[in-house]
Amino acid sequence: MRGLLLFATLGLAAAEDGLNAWLRYARLPPDIAKQATVPLNIVALNTTETSPVYVAGQELQKGIKGILDRSLNITHEASEGSSVVVGTIAAFNNSGISIGTPELEQDGFWLSIKGDTVEIVGQNERGALYGAFEYLSMLAQANFTEVAYATNPSAAIRWINQWDNMDGTIERGYAGPSIFFKGNAPVSNVTRVAEYARLLASIRVNGIVINNVNANAQILSDANMAGIARIADAMRPWGVKVGISLNFASPQTFGGLNTFDPLDKSVIAWWTKITDKLYQHVPDLAGFLVKANSEGQPGPLTYGRTLSDGANLFAKAAKPHGGIVMFRAFVYDNQHLNERNWKDDRANAAVDFFRGLDEKFDDNVVVQVKYGPIDFQVREPPSPLFAHLKQTASAIELQVTQEYLGQQCHLVYLPPLWKTILDFDLRVDGEKSVIGTDILSGKRFNKKGLTGYAAVVNVGQNATWLGSHLAMSNLYGYGRLAWDPTVNEVEILEDWTRLTFGLDDTVRETITRMSMESWPAYENYTGNLGIQTLTDITGPHYGPNPQSMDNNAWGQWTRADAFSIGMDRTVKNGTGFAGQYPTEVAAVFEEIETTPDDLLLWFHHVPYTHVLKNGKTVIQHFYDAHYAGAETAATFPTQWAKLEGLIDKQRFDETAFRLTYQAGHAIVWRDSINQFYNSLSGIADAHDRVNNHPWRVEAESMTLRGYRVTSVNPFEVASGLRIVQTVGNSSSASVSAKLNFTAGTYDVAVAYYDLYEGKASYELFLNDKSIGSWVGDNEYKLGYTVTRGIDGHSATRITFKGVDVKEGDVVRVDAKANGRETAPLDYIAVLPPGVVD
Ligand code: GCU
């Protein structure tokens, strides 16, 4: 009963599944709500139900009801006085309401709040809707100030890319199946599609490409075009235009021609016809996204044509319809890169391919450039291609889905990473050329109206959209930065937290602190000094596997040997990549002395004993950073625990589970990377932590029943280089050991491997008393790319807190293998308070 009462006073919703993300419109406490001056009516200056202004009216009604518990009527006739009026400039002018708005740019809006009169004036319908969301965002954050201002987007293109396959899977998606496709066709139930469009409109995203860049030509069938139209209809009321990815070989593979040569007349005619047909289905189709001659995809180079020949083929077809072509700069040849050639470098590819083409692209082509020269790594320098596209419009490609950044199982707040790129001044021709405010805004090279942002998001059917509640700050942050790249990343977080979890100070401070610590921590425990995320490059891109980076043609090399590490990208002695930057920037990266430590190994090959600007050697920095990163991650579950009761139980529990998992996996990362470089370099950790774990009992040294000792691949993901697995598919096996720790209260952690296809079960005992039990079923809970191997992806830790242990106690794990899972165990750690190991 007491619990119930407390619940009621705090006004917490019983369960929240995350579906409404930052648009929950949670009721404000009455004492706060009563300070708001609320208009009596809503006037939406459009009567067409599918228009964004009409939708804005309804959203205002819903939001004000939710936040302030006031029921407002909606009318469509102009009235002054106590009302919130939303409409376009043109509608305001027609209605006779006098407005003194400054000049607005496309999608911009004017917001004026004065007493109980609110005016939301959009340059267009979309802008008006954005203004309505802005007003609601203020109310939801209990910000009742009077304002009068105009805001305009930094760039015209603010798009999402979804890498959804037509069979309903999502490439690099970690939140369940597609909301757009099912069974090789666009979905017929578009409820989630419309809900997604609502979220996107609220962060001012105006376009979305719904299918994978590795595109299936079948999307161009008549039935599928009708399906795309259905999706476009669901998103249009929210001002979000739909675009599609094209497969370059479609004329041949789908159209039945014997060529897809972009200069062939029949190919040109084919694309023109297909494009015309698409625009009959979707008259406002945003345009096309094209991945060509990249990672095995077909493209113009197949016929000895240029990339601009390829892009212009689509541009000419789309031009009469007002469509644009986003042509990806992610062009490289993963067949012929040769690590033995010191000068070979995948990072050079984009500029090498596009350098001579700047004047060749049609004016409705936008080159879409990943933020760094390689591929969404934990740290990269900005792509130098932004400095070479002067005649051609460019857009930056960011990644909200955390492909190399923990796949939403690790909290990694990305705006600070993106800001290292957006705030970077490329100094093109010796002049200020900041990527966000000068280049992507279109100002520097006079491309206004055709530049901007694309983010690979990959939401899925999971109620949380991305698989994790906290990961949604990245989607929210993306929208905020695309609108205004100068907005502060902490401010973004604080707004997002208030909207997502309410106004409590502790909640806001905790989530802000953890989020701001998260990217540096992840960089620390995965790959630092610019060496990239040291993950499994040929596999899931998730857990540690440093050796997979080298000796293949993917070109994400570290060139690590027994003595030295890093890519020499200098002009004087290396791949020449540094020279792709404008002179002033090139000079900085050319020299070790001027290259910042965090990009050292990106640009230079140095001995492990090289001394950094921070006074440490490279190898000691590796060790220390990995320890520091895992220690930060270890604080996350503890910080989060303080929020119990301050937020709803469902989101509290789901997040607690992920943060606890992350803390364990951060230790997997730390130990694997440190063990690997320690073994490669033979240089000991100055603090004697690497391979020295006084609080661990290795499974291979325990008394085994129904278990056998094995090694694993890669070797470094096993503490002590060995693990144990059940013999055959034993249904009853155990490991046990006598503990030699002095009496006290410890946290007991068990390191095991949670594989795909199998749910082994485990129970931990101390002197025959059960401490806890668990099942290896993370493949159903976490969403990262699962493997069937005992490796850095499946390595997992579970921790039982506050266990009283005496010297001589016997610790035991009973296990039952299941399916493929041979209940693999690595070690048991008995940790005194404060020890992270
Ligand atoms: C990465 C990613 C692929 C994707 C590719 C791209 O390499 O792993 O899944 O297709 O980028 O951006 O085209």
TrEMBL record:
Function: Alpha-glucuronidase involved in the hydrolysis of xylan, a major structural heterogeneous polysaccharide found in plant biomass representing the second most abundant polysaccharide in the biosphere, after cellulose. Releases 4-O-methylglucuronic acid from xylan.
InterPro entries in alphabetical order: A-glucoronidase_C_sf, GH, Glyco_hydro_67_aGlcAse, Glyco_hydro_67_aGlcAse_N, Glyco_hydro_67_C, Glyco_hydro_67_cat, Hex-like_dom2
Active site feature: 295 (proton donor), 375 (proton acceptor), 403 (proton acceptor)
Swiss-Prot/TrEMBL keywords: Carbohydrate metabolism, Glycosidase, Hydrolase, Polysaccharide degradation, Signal, Xylan degradation
PANTHER family for this protein: ALPHA-GLUCURONIDASE A (PTHR39207:SF1)
Organism ancestry: Eukaryota, Fungi, Dikarya, Ascomycota, Pezizomycotina
Species name: Daldinia eschscholtzii
Gene3D superfamilies listed in its UniProt record: Alpha-glucuronidase, C-terminal domain, Chitobiase/beta-hexosaminidase domain 2-like, Galactose-binding domain-like, Glycosidases
SUPFAM superfamilies tied to this protein: (Trans)glycosidases, beta-N-acetylhexosaminidase-like domain
Glycosyl hydrolase family 67 C-terminal domain residues: 467-689
Gene Ontology biological process terms from the UniProt entry: xylan catabolic process
Catalytic reactions on record: an alpha-D-glucuronoside + H2O = D-glucuronate + an alcohol
Location of the Glycosyl hydrolase family 67 catalytic domain: 141-465
GO molecular function: alpha-glucuronidase activity
GO cellular component annotations of the record: extracellular region
Gene from which this protein is expressed: aguA
Subcellular location: Secreted
EC number in record: 3.2.1.139
Protein's name in the database: Alpha-glucuronidase
Family as reported in the entry's similarity comment: Belongs to the glycosyl hydrolase 67 family.
Cleavable signal peptide: 1-15
